[in-house]
Specification:
Blueprint: H1 7-29, H2 38-41, H3 46-49, H4 51-74, H5 76-96, H6 100-128, H7 131-163, H8 166-186, H9 200-211, H10 214-244, H11 252-273, H12 279-302, H13 308-337, H14 342-366, H15 373-392
Helix pairs in contact: 1-6, 1-7, 1-8, 4-5, 4-6, 4-14, 5-6, 5-8, 6-14, 7-11, 7-13, 10-12, 10-13, 10-14, 10-15, 11-13, 12-13, 12-15, 13-14
Length: 398
């Protein structure tokens, strides 16, 4: 039977979910400063190393389509526990990987299991917080999550220098063990299991209704395109700043952290404005900011004026917009889906977001030419597509 946590306890649950989600983010951000060094350490090429990012994201994305219905069938709590255990084991496998092939396989497994936590987290935030409080909670959640990408690359760079790249995965495994125990202790069940949730015809019909509904797509597409742009930089950024611009590995996190602080500022703005500004207006402001940031990045790089500081400045415009979009859009999309389709909508959201992120990471890997131009091109195109979808899918009046 469904249980509902007392209101005062909801914020403790949010903290526990934030901690677990943060560790899954660290599985990428701790690792990024090591990327330029792995071709030499594992006798491979930069293009192959970048598969540890893009294929991890692809697994993270695709699996969420299945975890949405599974969360409806078996409940939120069992699925989260399953994901945490699998993530712990796959993190240990990454730390012990003897070859690049094994590391890629272990990173795919990390994405497979971490995606369960992503689906459950989104559903619990929506089911424990209502209305404006839900938007505010999501803004605070996004702001808290932003702290992990800010700290991750800086910490990961120093760990790489002091103890080697494998130590980063050891830290992930230890952190997920601690935070996972906290989540298991405080997490309530918010869903009565639905025995029909895994009916294949029902699943297909539900997803088909979601991907053909204008109100869903208007929020979904800008979230996906913004992730494509962000992960283009997450993947290519270490090569651009460390290899091309001669930033020390242990200092990479300072530049990456500046863009993340901008994301936190965007999320914080949503949490502060949620009671006074309509959610769609916040999303529109975020989409416009992403459009400006994407074109600004392309202009700076294309003009040959890119320096570490100028690049971070225009990237920070984009990440502020991402904070606005992800602070407001997920709750609005889940509300548009309604109670019956909420699990599937959460799975679709995660799949599309991370699928676009994987495409962004894969694109910069495939077209990497030793310059920052492929990354800037992906970010520029992402901003244009997101803004076009937001405008084009608006309800026509009259």
């Amino acid at each position: 039977m469904t249980t509902t946590a007392p209101r005062a306890a909801n914020w403790l649950i949010l903290t526990a979910l934030l901690s677990c989600s943060g560790v899954s983010i660290l599985s990428t951000d701790l690792f990024t400063p090591s990327l330029p060094h792995l071709p030499g350490l594992l006798a491979t090429t930069p293009q192959i190393v970048q598969l540890t990012m893009s294929l991890n994201l692809a697994a993270f994305a695709v699996c969420q389509l299945f975890y949405g219905p599974l969360a409806d069938r078996f409940g939120r709590r069992p699925l989260l526990i399953y994901g945490l255990i699998g993530f712990l084991i796959s993190s240990v496998a990454c730390a012990l990987a003897p070859t690049i092939g094994v590391l890629i396989a272990a990173r795919i497994a990390q994405g497979f299991f971490a995606s369960a936590e992503a689906v459950v987290t989104m559903l619990l935030v929506r089911e424990l917080f209502e209305g404006d409080e839900g938007t505010r909670a999501m803004g605070l959640f996004g702001m808290g999550l932003g702290a992990f990408p800010a700290v991750g690359p800086l910490l990961g760079g120093y760990i790489h220098i002091w103890a080697g790249w494998r130590a980063n995965f050891v830290l992930m495994a230890a952190a997920i063990a601690v935070f996972g125990l906290l989540a298991v202790k405080v997490l309530p069940e918010t869903k009565v299991p639905d025995r029909n949730a895994l009916n294949l015809r029902h699943i297909a019909r539900t997803y088909r209704s979601l991907i053909t509904e204008r109100a869903i797509l208007r929020y979904l597409i800008p979230m996906g395109t913004s992730m494509a742009g962000m992960f283009a930089f997450i993947t290519a950024g270490p090569f651009i700043l460390i290899d091309l611009m001669d930033i020390a590995t242990e200092r990479y996190g300072l530049y990456s952290g500046a863009t993340v602080l901008s994301y936190i500022a965007g999320s914080y703005s949503v949490s502060r404005l949620a009671r006074r500004v309509p959610g769609p207006a916040l999303v529109e402001a975020g989409v416009a900011t992403l459009f400006a940031g994407g074109l600004g990045t392309l202009a700076v790089v294309g003009s040959g004026l890119a320096t570490p500081l100028s690049l971070v400045a225009v990237l920070s415009v984009s990440t502020f917009g991402i904070g606005l979009v992800f602070g407001a859009a997920p709750m609005l999309m889940l509300d548009a889906a309604g109670d019956v389709r909420r699990g599937a909508a959460s799975g679709l959201l995660g799949c599309f977001e991370l699928g676009c992120a994987a495409l962004g990471a894969l694109a910069v890997g495939m077209f990497y030419d030793g310059t920052a131009l492929p990354c800037a091109a992906v970010m520029g195109v992402s901003g244009i597509l997101g803004a076009g979808a937001w405008r084009g899918l608006a309800e026509r009046r009259g």
